[in-house]
Amino acid sequence: MRSFIITRALLVVPTILGVVTLVFFFVHMVPGDPVVLMLGDYATPQEIQSMRHRLDLDRPLASQYGLYLDDLAHFDLGTSIYYNRPAAGIVIERFKYTFVLAVFAMLLSLLLSAPLGIVSAYRQGSWLDRVIEDTSVVGLSLPNFLIGIVLILIFSVKLNVLPVAGAQSASSIVLPGLTLAIGMSTITIRMVRANMIAAIRHESFTAGLARGLGVNRALFVHALKATLIPVVTLIGTQFGLLLSGAIVTETVFSWPGIGKLLVDSVATRDYPLLSAAVLVIASVYVFVNLATDIVYYMVEPRMRKRQ
Predict the structure, then answer these.
(1) Which among 262, 304, 296, 212 is positioned nearest to 94, based on CA atoms?
(2) Domains of the chain (ranges plus CATH)?
């Protein structure tokens, strides 16, 4: 177990370094001048040149890259050009909102997908199975922004029971969380259903019923346990994507998370803030995948035998 974790953790280092390099050069390829956007169209050439020098934007790109790596080595993500505040503090503030939304959406997705996937598998071929499967196919085909708009029209415009956007109250999380949960549930339902069908058809399930196990115990203990490995991998990937910022959903609902921050920093050409946001997003995704690999190793006996 220890050697497995160390090996996976060492692979994170070159991955993060590659991410850092790509983030820096891609960010500087974004068109537009952040200094002009910050000072306005009426700024004098002297003011623009002075600001460029203060922000080190008048240096060669290679020199800026060296300064960027040096700052990262000292855990300094730079100062936001637009907000004139440390970029790390802004990203942490926004990441809190993304984390809460991701946890809420993931729990809601599991509450929806696990029971529906189990019922669909056990009632395979019935009208209920067809309804669940057809609904999941439709949900899988719809983009998140369209799901979000439909939910806004129903619950905010028509029924007027939930807020449209922002994060002013606890109820503000319901619509963006439900939007993300519906999108994730459609995939998880099909994964749970397929693996549950394979587990139900296995001879161990029939033998359990023959030994006197109840149907519910056989389903939720033995068959469901057999589906954990692929489902854990899927959930880890989905959760990593959520923590990386559900950019479209956060933008539709003006949810002040890291995804919305990323869009805003692109609009303002805020290089330090954009770099910090993308770096944190990529790093979170890498570390969530590392955690998923560790959980996978713990629940899959065959992987331990290979070590």
Answers:
(1) 262
(2) 97-269+279-306 (1.10.3720.10)
* Residue whose structure tokens are 């004139």: 84
Which pLDDT value is given to residue 135?
A: 85
Distance CA 112, CA 114 (A): 6
pLDDT at 83 > cutoff 70: yes
CA distance 166 to 173: 9
Q: What DSSP element (H or E) covers 4?
A: helix 2-27
Look up the pTM and report it.
0.78
Residue positions counted in the chain: 307
Distance CA 257, CA 167 (A): 10
Residue with tokens 């708009």: 149
Question: Look-up: residue for tokens 């490995």?
Answer: 229
In this structure, the number of other CB atoms found within 10 A of the CB of residue 256 comes to: 19
Answer for the pair 24, 275: CB distance below 8 angstroms, yes or no. yes
Q: How confident is the model at residue 209 (pLDDT cuts 50, 70, 90)?
A: low
Query: Among 144-148, 161-165, 232-236, whose mean pLDDT is lowest?
Result: 232-236
139/141 Cα distance (integer angstroms)? 5
Nearest-angstrom CA–CA distance, 211 and 206: 9
pLDDT in tens, 15-59: 888 887 887 787 777 666 667 766 666 778 887 788 778 777 778
Mean pLDDT across the chain? 80
**What would the two tokens of residue 206 be?**
């029939």
42 SS3 class: coil
* C-alpha dist (Å) from residue 172 to 99, 101, 103: 15, 10, 15
Q: CA–CA distance from 278 to each of 18, 215, 261, 263, 281 (Å)?
A: 13, 48, 10, 11, 5
